[in-house]
Design a protein that fits this description.
The protein is of the alpha/beta class. The protein has helices at residues 10-20, 31-35, 45-55, 72-84, 107-131, 154-173, 196-205, 214-225, and strands at 25-29, 60-64, 89-92, 141-145, 180-185, 236-238. 40% of the residues are buried.
């Protein structure tokens, strides 16, 4: 489970739900990313999540990972395999996300978004597939979190679009492993980044009359990773209360 750097984030909610489902859960985080974001450093959060996972009965390990480094995906799989054994499910919740539009995005920022959101995701999927245990064929899972927000959010939104295609391709190209690969679009979920104005607008526009929560996203990922979710494959699924309709 990548991108578990803050206790209020989607990654933490998903990781904890998977632990409740009986999974052992390894997590990755990169605290220096938080230093560049409005919410600032939450240095103890990965350890807090790890404690929550252990309380739910999961074996766990938290791995710091700078996903701009092409060596990082292999190092992550090495660390997780050494601590917990072969990886049978991969949930991609990490993201570089810095707001900017067509005219003010820098080349450096654009490249970093693609390094983290696309290249690292590809390398993680590749490492996962190449190491997939023969004994688990038919039970594997890949789930990635995406977004269709792109206006004034160009590098993030466009890189997430590329991520979608990568995961959908995996559903067919990894058919020999009989695993499922799906994308979840949770819509706007307030994990500390929304303004009061945006929160009110989303509340007014969502047919179900409320905003999304990390627990909503975690419930869908839980289903996709379960035996009951095994027939859903190669899909981009919305879990946003109908906001996109």
């Amino acid at each position: 489970m990548t991108g578990v750097g803050r206790t209020v984030g989607l990654g933490a909610a998903i990781a904890l739900r998977l632990a409740e489902d009986g999974w052992d859960v390894a997590t990755t985080h990169w605290t220096p990313y938080d230093d560049r974001m409005p919410w600032g450093r939450h240095e103890q959060d990965p350890q807090t999540v790890a404690a929550g996972l252990a309380e739910r009965g999961a074996r766990t390990v938290a791995v710091p990972a700078d996903l701009t480094d092409v060596r990082s995906p292999a190092a992550v799989l090495d660390a997780v395999t050494a601590a917990l054994g072969p990886v049978t499910a991969l949930v991609l919740s990490h993201a570089e996300s810095v707001d900017s539009g067509l005219l003010d995005t820098t080349v450096e920022s654009f490249d970093r978004h693609y390094q983290v959101n696309v290249r690292a995701s590809w390398l993680l999927v590749k490492e996962y597939a190449e190491r997939f245990p023969a004994s688990a064929i038919g039970t594997g899972r890949i789930v990635a979190l995406t977004s269709d927000h792109v206006v004034q959010n160009l590098p993030y939104g466009s890189s997430k679009g590329a991520l979608d295609r990568l995961v959908v391709a995996a559903a067919r190209e990894l058919a020999h492993l009989r695993l499922t690969a799906n994308v979840v679009n949770p819509g706007p979920v307030d994990t500390g980044w929304m303004t009061d104005e945006l929160r009110a607008r989303i509340l007014a526009e969502t047919p179900l009359g409320r905003g999304g929560t990390p627990r909503d996203t975690a419930a869908l990922v839980s289903f996709l990773c379960s035996p009951d979710g095994g027939w859903v494959n190669g899909q981009v699924l919305y879990s946003d209360g109908g906001l996109h309709v």
